[in-house]
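Take our chain:
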Amino acid sequence: MLSVLFVFIIGYISSTAFADQCSFERCNDHYGSNDTINVHIICHTHDDLGWIKTVDQYYWGSYDFLVPVGVQYILDTVISELKRRPERKFSWAETGFLWRWLHTHDKDDREELDSLIKNGQLEIIGGGWVQNDEAASHYIDIIDQMSFGLRKLNETFGRCAIPKIAWQIDPFGHSREMANLFALMDFDALFFSRYHYLEKDKRLDEKKLEMMWTASDDLNTSIFTGTFYGDSYGPPPGFCFDALCNDEPIMDQKDMEEYNVDRKVQAFLSYVMSQASRQATNHIMLLMGSDFQYTNANKWYSNLDRLIKHVNKRSNETKVRAFYSTPTCYYKAVMAESQVLSTKTDDFFPYASRPHSYWTGYFTSRPTFKGFIRQSTSLLQLAKQFAALSMLEDDKNRNNLNVFRSALALLQHHDAVTGTAKQLVTFDYTKRLSMGWDDGEIVLNNALSKLSDNKFNATICKLCRLMNESICESTSRMSSFAVIVFNPDSHPKSSVIRIPYYRLAAEVTDFTGKLLDSQLSKTPFTSLIKIDASPYQLSVPVQIPALGYTTIYVNGSGEVYSKNRGKQRNSWKTLKPENNEMKSTKISSDCIELLFDRHGYLKAIKNLKTGIQTPLRQEFLYYEGTGSWPFTGQASGAYIFRPTEANPKPLKPGSIFLQVEKGPLVINILQVYSPWISQVIRLYKGKEYVEFEWMVGPIPKEQNNPITKEIITRYSTNIASNGTFYTDSNGRQMMKRRRDYSASYIYMDTEPVSANYYPVNSRIFVKDSELQLTVLTDRSEGGTSLNDGQIELMIHRRAFYDDGYGVEEPLDEYGDNKQGLIASGKHWLFVSNTKQAASIHRSLAFEMLYQPILTFFPIIKQDEILKQFSGLSQQLPRQLHILSLEQWSKNNYLLRIEHIYQKNEDPVLSSGAKVDLKA
């Protein structure tokens, strides 16, 4: 179903007087006769919240040597010019910048802007905090950033500022789930610029630049979708009147030597007629503006006024009429034609701007940054939930949450989460999100204190932010400590947590004092592990209530060490390669059996519960990216993935180092492929999936003419997938993919690898009639299936040459040691019966997203804290999930509940379900 129920939300319609004529109610009477071409002049600016400069630098206009623009001046001059003539219009998209402008200007300035919005001269489009990416953003983050921006608009300006048009003109490809979300948000139309050049050529030839996009088979949602005639979202050639452009102005004084209005009008009409010949109605949209344009709005409007005047003087002759318009008015005019639009059911991935320019590298670029963003999703949801459950209604906590909200919303920008901003800008993004964590931690601790009736001073609780690196300051300083284990998921969670540990023994008890099983393991030290990593990892099984937490206590005192000396720590056993060709090694938990060949590679997998087994090989390989000297065409870079060969290279021939540590809770299998690639494969007690925790880096850099390297992990089975595979769309609906094929254009095999890459936000699978191999990811990655039964995921990349799309620096992250970035992440893999797979991967996706969040504090009197807590009084049906729970305003709360299964995915769980909100 994949439906969403908004149980309670403050209405977006405010008390603004309905006498105000908003932009969508003031469309020109421009229909005219059927043989008149109506030219909608759309004045706009596209303002990235960070890319070449930081968001602050872009707003204030500093660092002119990078880009001589300042967003504050754009709004200042646009407002001034709109006031001069009521027929002038402007369209604004980025709420994040608009909010900054409101808070750096006085009351009179704000009232002028308000009046222009309400009289229809300035139309708000898009409305999100940013123009979010559609490949690497998770749907929960998308909904949050859109809600954050739309709420600010409604509370500030009222109904006239609530956009009717979704405006995604710069993201590098477009997802079906994004279109579905826009339709569910009640947008009338969606406009964008970037999609595959072959599909665009086809649509131009067939006059189908506009379509109805069917966005969900479950909800039957669809949205009018318009794409642009030009190759960008900028003005026609010769008609850019911005301070950044050098096009000649419109000069209409006849006694001037450089009088040019007749020539300019003729050039304009030629362009209009060319565009009109490729469109299905007598309405065309001309975009007047581009990146950070209108710093001098007077120059724009003075020239456009003259252009419109002289074009319309000849309208009886030319049958062309030009006027200021907005995207909403254009949409209304097109729909008034009552034409039958073509339909589209697939998506717009991958995006290619040229035959060898596939924008599929950014699916993986900056993997640690992408991982940080995904971790932040979970923490923000937890902070919002506990603020609501504890009824933290004061302004201070609300402001703290908004710092976190705005930071994570900012990072959904299409040059942030994508990893396509300059390195210094990425540092700024990271700093802002880290500050968001600071504020989120404050809110979480305040909620804990309030839930305990202020008996517990939760300010002593600390998050460990480097847990993935086996580093935790709290556990390093205390021999005994308490851990609050949070569950942001709306279903109870059974999990094994791993704690960086610095003592020789441990006793762990739950909140009742019951002794828990635990496993103390040596941290598997390789050359990639930091020196300050903990020597041990303490694994503990926990049962965590839904939307709640449980508390455990760890005692590592000398007394415990004496009592358990030599009993707890498990040792690693090295498995040496065998010369015997038939020699293999079985390693089993209670649920999964893995078979490794004599070289140390995974060979087969068996589920001991179901009896399902299949050959399975997992290995790391790498592509060499185009761009090595001498330069040969399009290079691999932050955006582009372009390998030099279709087949990836092995890291090295022969055997790999293999060690095993067997414990009562988890079996750890260490594989070392090279000095810069290793992984730990884990089998957890009671879990029917395999965890692959990979660690890659620093990717080697040659001293002379360095070679770009794109690292993949590949899982190979004998599943007869018949050229098809499936990837998620923003973590929600699943999309069927066919190798070397497109449903929307005739596929051309110019880039056999990168043309088959798709964004993977949460999972990818291959299947046949019997078996399905599913891999879940802990962050956004690029993925494909280049051979039947095979899944390939790109996990890290280091490019030494700029790909030529504006960043003007290579994707060469140098990491903490200045030698190169080390990235680590997780994949969860399972093999199952095809019919049962959805019931597994749907729930596992939320387990991966909402992994337990731990805070640490010194052991105090146990009666001073709430030892266990759940925000739910009854368990939700399996197919339902709480998407949002947060305080909206004082005494008002927002609850979104979603059905997480698609139609026909599961015979039981795809059906509807009921929940009693009063229980």
Remarks:
- Confidence is low (pLDDT under 50) at residues 7-19.
- Residues 640 and 684 are 38 Å apart (CA to CA).
